[in-house]
Amino acid sequence: MKKTLLSVENVSSGYGGELILRNVDFRVCQGELMGIIGPNGSGKSTLLRTVSRILRPRQGRIHLDGKDIGGMSHREFARKVSVVSQSPESAEMRVREYILLGRLPYFGKYQFFETDHDEALVERYMELTHVSRFKNSMMSEISGGERQLASIARALVQEPELLLLDEPTSHLDITHQVQILELIRRLNRELGLTVLMVLHDLNLASAYSTRLLLMNRGSVFKVGSPEEVITYRIVEDVYETVVLVEKNPLSGKPCVFLATEEDMRKGKKG
User: How far apart are the first and last CA of the chain?
Assistant: First the structure.
């Protein structure tokens, strides 16, 4: 049985006086690639912000490798968890300098310059993420897909145990969506990196996740393999939309097809 890396236990969280998450409970095993899915407003991003300590739980506990994240120092947490947001900032700095910021949790007291080890890690992960070709460009001058790659490279130089991604393919065309997700799956398989990511597209979530966490109205609706979570009954119940779910002929993973009103009228006539 695989070791539990992340444990979310009966967590409720929200903003101001409003609770968004209610009694959320799940586990992520070491080396797993788990996708978080659900309708708009279901609490996906709120859950990721709570796990990443941007929000503090109103109730419950979150443990990383057996330790309560609330009791970790900022430096300790940053050495274990990296976060990639939906829209990486277009900072006025060169890509290489931006990626090097990922080493800050490892800088010692009164250390102002990177070490040879820091430099070597930056070079390694720029190569791995195919960022080297534009490493001397300004962050503000590169494309959204390139900024996303640079943000992943910066997250990797933190040498985390857990990588959190909030809709990493948001606003990207299909070419860049596949490029980003293929990279994440490669990192998961080759480096053994544990990944928890929010995805909007059900078919991409099915294709790239080893397990899925389906959120609905601030609570966990279902956790399981893509085959267990993405069924037409579950998708219709949660998304309140008529769909067809078929197996992808290449991967065997479930694939969701929308049934438009015109399609249903044709079906009735047939």
Answer: 50
Cα separation, 24 vs 27, in Å, equals 10
CB within 8 Å of 89: residues ≥ 6 apart: 139
CA distance 58 to 33: 27
| Backbone angle region of 254, left / alpha / beta, with phi > 0 → left and psi within -120 to 50 → alpha | beta
Using alpha carbons only, what angle is made at residue 207 by residues 124 and 53, rounded to the nearest 5 degrees? 60
pLDDT band at 81 (very low <50, low <70, confident <90, very high): very high
Could you give the CA distance from residue 162 to residue 195 in angstroms, rounded to a whole number?
6
Contact in structure between 62 and 68 (CB atoms under 8 Å): yes
In the predicted structure, residue 264 carries a pLDDT above the cut 90: no
Report whether pLDDT(141) > 60.
yes
Q: What values do phi and psi take at 244, rounded to 5? A: -115, 140
Q: Rounded to an integer, what distance in angstroms lies between the CA atom of residue 74 and that of residue 110?
A: 17
**How many whole angstroms separate alpha carbon 228 and alpha carbon 212?**
9
pLDDT in tens, 38-56: 999 999 999 999 999 999 9
16 φ/ψ sector (left φ>0, alpha ψ -120 to 50, else beta): left
- Compute the CA torsion angle 7, 201, 86, 179 (nearest 10 deg): 100
Distances, alpha carbon 168 to alpha carbons 26, 202, 221, in Å: 22, 14, 23
Question: Pairing relation of β-strands 4-15 and 33-37?
Answer: unpaired
Q: What is the pLDDT of residue 10?
A: 97
94: helix, coil or strand? strand
Mean pLDDT is lowest, of 8-17, 107-116, 226-235, 253-262, for 107-116
The number of residues in the chain equals: 270
pLDDT at residue 108 greater than cutoff 70: no
